Amino acid sequence: MRLLLGSGRGNRARFLLMVLGGSIGVCCLAAVLTVPSVLDARDGRAMAREPRVGKESAGATLELTQNDAYGSQPFGRVFLARGEHAPEPPPGIPEVPEPGVVFVSPRLQEALDREPSLSGLLPGKVHGLIGPEGLGHPNELFAYIGMRRDQLPGGTSVAGFGTRYVNSPAVEPSTLDILRFTLAGVVLLPLAVFLSVCARLSAATRLRRLAALRLLGLSIKGVQRVNAAETVVAALLGAVLGLAEYWAVNQLVARVGLPGLKWYVDDGALTATTMAVCLIGCPALACLWGGPGQAGQQRTHWLRGEARWRNRPEPGVCCC
């Protein structure tokens, strides 16, 4: 690092560009690795509130689900008629609502405050809000409405809540593949070209510095370690900066949302696996690129550079 810091402004600028480019790549890599966990978290909460059909009986709890539209947003309502043996309530509410009791999502409560006439679609009185564990995303319009049994003639018997499958996944598999291709092709590919160009532009300067180390008596393996150390440090700093960039982007985009996709901030939090891949995998690849993997080619360049330095003419001596 002392050799790098003392080798001129151009080399320091190249090193910072490598760190910045690596951080963008790590940020995109973290996003690609985190998208499946975001979708799994959304679908998991949706599966946890799906009703399970039970046996028809006089004291069974009845359920009827209606999916409407409020403007351009879907509006889900679940009507529940509590029976003699009420099942465990769905996630996000304390109990199966009694007749006239309504639980709404926070975003639906905001819509009710703006448009009181919307309460006509929710027969009853709002007694509380649905918790995050019962909602797919923070902007969801959803409500549980307590009814009497005679008010749900088309209701089905409910044995409980929670299934192994989700009726409407957050994102279709084909859309997820398109998203991954966009991140990999539109961002990572130009970034790889940028890093390659930076490496080629700085190759001559780096070879001169490494040849000078050979003149000072450092072995070829020692020069390889110096070269690999510089590359690994750039990759490690870029990985740390990239994870910080992803954290900031997740905090912002999760609150704003993307077209057709919204999530909680905790859904997009970095996992231990993602951090390990970024903090260990990226420097390891950089070590392979700048270390023994390029030893043969680099050795030839260093020996040529060393020969040029050894055979250079003395100042003031004519070579004719």
- Major β-sheet strand ordering: 1-7-2-3-6-4-5
What is the typical, i.e. mean, pLDDT?
78
Per DSSP, what share of the residues sits in E-state strands of 2 or more residues? 5-15%
Count of strand segments: 7
Shape descriptor: elongated
> What is the subunit organization of this protein?
single chain
* Biggest sheet character: 7 strands, mixed
DSSP summary: helix tally: 8
Q: Which structural category fits the helices and strands?
A: alpha/beta
> What are the secondary-structure elements, in order, as H or E?
HHEEEEHEEEHHHHH
Give the CA-CA distance, first to last residue.
41 Å
As a percent range, the share of helical residues equals 40-55%
Q: Which stretches are low in confidence, meaning pLDDT under 50 for 5 or more residues running?
A: 292-307, 314-320
What's the gyration radius in Å?
31 Å
How many domains, as an integer? Answer: 2
